[in-house]
Amino acid sequence: MSTSTNSNPTSSHPPTSTPKNPHHQQQHQQQQQPPPILLALSGPTSSGKTTLATALHDIFPPPHYSLTTIHADDFYKPDSQIPLLRDGIQDWDCAESLDLAGLEGVLRGVKAGEGRGRGMMMMERQGNFEPDGDGDGDADGDEDEDGVHIARGISGACIERMRGKVRGWEEGVRGLGRGVVVVDGFLLFGKSVPGSLRGLFDVKVLLRAGYEDAKARRERRNGYVTLEGFWRDPEGYFERVVWPNYVGEYGGLVGVGEGEGGGGGGERREFEGQRVWLSDPRWGLEECLEWVIGVVGKEVERINRGMDEFGLDSDSMPG
Asked: Which of 288, 116, 315 lies closest to 207 in space, CA to CA?
């Protein structure tokens, strides 16, 4: 079960002269290169996680950033290993349905400078949401008349405006040579996620959605291709499983009133010992994207102020 967004990683490798001792030079560069910034985009079904991840990939081109996208949906377990509810229905919306240890291993590899992480190149998308024109169910996106990739539901004009904002960080934010890895998934830093995995994310964003909107979008989907077959939500699955699991994982951030259309967002809260940024469930995709860009800018600046832990100063920063 996964979105069909293509990760399409990008990277920038400036030309260098051949060193006398390549192995020694490589070790020196790895010691000097800070780890990439891991951005977690989490939230309930159909909250726009994959759409925004696609847009971010378009907005952060080299040489400013090297951005890679990892989809937590790629870590679903085989159908036969999905937990069963008391009535025998599979629960695809719980922590036990995901190979979280595998995800943690990949992210640790990324943090350690192993490119996309051990085993990453061997992974394939496990399945596709049926395209429905809303939120995470979108396909990869479209291209404008100039061939520029556009995340579905977000205009090319918005993408260009956000690119300009990112370029404006060049003078005010250090460390633009650092990579950015976006991880999107419905369950990334909830209560059931091990602390060792949650702690890998440098920036945590919860993209919230109102109950009725999330329910309507989920129910418009025709089903999901899985590793071993096909899944279609049985009647009442959203009310019985999807939403209660989401509230159970992020209850302290969701708030009881949110399901009734309550707002409140664009703020940072403490949750389970983590700093988490919350979107407003009433925002549209473009408004939410602009807010996420602002959050990333603030967090990158905060992270780079602590660069001394890597033994780097402003003169030795890459890029």
From this structure: 288
Return the residue matching tokens 């440098």: 202
- Inform me whether the pLDDT recorded for 194 exceeds 90: yes
The letter for the amino acid at 192 is S
Q: Global pTM?
A: 0.76
Contact 287, 3 (CB under 8 A): no
User: Which two tokens mark 82?
Assistant: 């999905």
CA angle, 247 as apex, 193 and 199 as ends, to 5°?
A: 25
Q: Tell me the DSSP string of 76-104.
A: BPPGGGS-B-TTS-B-TTSGGGB-HHHHH
Strands (DSSP E) contained in the chain are 37-42, 67-71, 142-143, 149-150, 180-185, 203-206, 224-225, 230-231, 267-271, 274-278
- Residue whose structure tokens are 């780890």: 35
What one-letter code names the amino acid at 195?
G
Instruction: Give the model confidence (pLDDT) of 42-88 as tens digits.
Output: 999 888 898 999 899 888 766 546 678 899 999 999 999 999 999 99
Rg of the chain (C-alpha set): 20
Q: In the chain, what percentage of residues exceed pLDDT 70?
A: 66
Please name which of 5, 7, 9, 11 lies closest in space to residue 142, comparing C-alpha atoms.
5
Distance of alpha carbon 57 from alpha carbon 285, whole angstroms: 15
